[in-house]
């Protein structure tokens, strides 16, 4: 089947992109395999009118509202390949069938690659976080740990004193004199021992057998684009030491004509409100490209 626009990813950015296209009465398919990046967090914070709402509920309500538009279809599945031929994009879904579209919006999000510390993965999104604006307020200015996991960790630690009493855990990694000076300027103590495991709510147990309880822990995850078809498609991808993302212009157009992108897959750092804004603009831009 042929559509005006295929949106790959049905979370906040993808659903937001679908709305202006649906209201323009364009034929749209939203392809999603049900793996929201923030599925590990129970509640979403920082989104105007939805602060504190269940993260899953925001996506469910959005999908229900968009489903009311007759020109929007949903496909459940995983995109395995996208190829362009004769100004049309051919999208292969689960090796079962393919659809074609005049335009593509990539809204796949990214995957968080977490440090290999015992007990960390099980607490991700519950007592271990990456975004203070999303989860810092609920820690009630309590005891906060920052684990040294990337070149961004020192920066992250220096932000967090607005949300609580911060301790920096180097996890056995060497810090530069400048990094130690920066942390000292914010009165942030440093624990240099390696971490053995994380237990209970947010207790950090060290290799030295010492342990310390915290109200929350922050980690800078590495964000990666794991879909091979995105890189094979040929859109330009940017990266730094802690992430990679698709390069777009101000209107969410990628380096390839007819391909737009939105949400966490186009930025270092992300949130629900930013994804919704990105998606809306990508949808409008894709629509305009069909006209002009």
TrEMBL record:
InterPro entries in the record: FAD/NAD-bd_sf (IPR036188), FAD/NAD-binding_dom (IPR023753), Ferredoxin-NADP_redctase_2 (IPR050097)
SUPFAM superfamilies from the UniProt entry: FAD/NAD(P)-binding domain (SSF51905)
Taxonomy, superkingdom: Bacteria
Gene Ontology MF term list: oxidoreductase activity
Signal peptide extent: none
Domain FAD/NAD(P)-binding span(s) in chain numbering: 3-269
Keyword terms, alphabetized: Flavoprotein, Oxidoreductase
Pfam families, per database record: Pyr_redox_2 (PF07992)
Presence of keyword Glycoprotein: no
PANTHER family, sorted: THIOREDOXIN REDUCTASE 1-RELATED-RELATED
Protein name: Thioredoxin reductase
Native organism: Acinetobacter marinus
């Amino acid at each position: 089947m042929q559509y005006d626009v295929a949106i790959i990813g049905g979370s906040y950015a993808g659903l937001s992109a679908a709305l202006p296209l649906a209201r323009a009465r364009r034929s749209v398919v939203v392809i999603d395999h049900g793996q929201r990046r923030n599925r590990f967090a129970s509640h979403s914070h920082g989104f105007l009118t939805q602060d504190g709402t269940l993260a899953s509920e925001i996506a469910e309500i959005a999908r229900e509202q968009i489903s009311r538009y007759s020109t929007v279809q949903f496909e459940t599945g995983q995109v395995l390949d996208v190829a362009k031929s004769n100004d049309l994009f051919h999208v292969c879904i689960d090796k079962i069938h393919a659809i074609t579209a005049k335009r593509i919006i990539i809204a796949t999000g990214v995957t968080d690659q977490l440090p290999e510390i015992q007990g960390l993965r099980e607490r991700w999104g519950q007592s271990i976080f990456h975004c203070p604006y999303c989860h810092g307020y609920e820690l009630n200015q309590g005891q906060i740990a920052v684990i040294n996991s990337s070149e961004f960790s020192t920066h992250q630690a220096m932000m967090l004193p607005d949300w609580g009493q911060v301790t920096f855990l180097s996890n056995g990694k060497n810090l530069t004199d400048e990094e130690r000076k920066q942390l000292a300027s914010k009165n942030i103590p440093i624990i240099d021992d390696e971490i053995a495991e994380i237990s209970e709510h947010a207790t950090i147990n060290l290799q030295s057998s010492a342990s310390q309880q915290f109200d929350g822990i922050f980690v800078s995850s590495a964000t990666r684009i794991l879909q091979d078809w995105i890189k094979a498609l040929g859109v330009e991808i940017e990266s730094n030491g802690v992430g990679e993302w698709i390069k777009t212009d101000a209107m969410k157009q990628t380096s390839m004509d007819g391909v737009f992108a939105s949400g966490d897959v186009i930025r270092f750092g992300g949130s629900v409100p930013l994804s919704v804004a990105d998606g809306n603009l990508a949808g409008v831009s894709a629509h305009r490209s069909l006209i002009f």
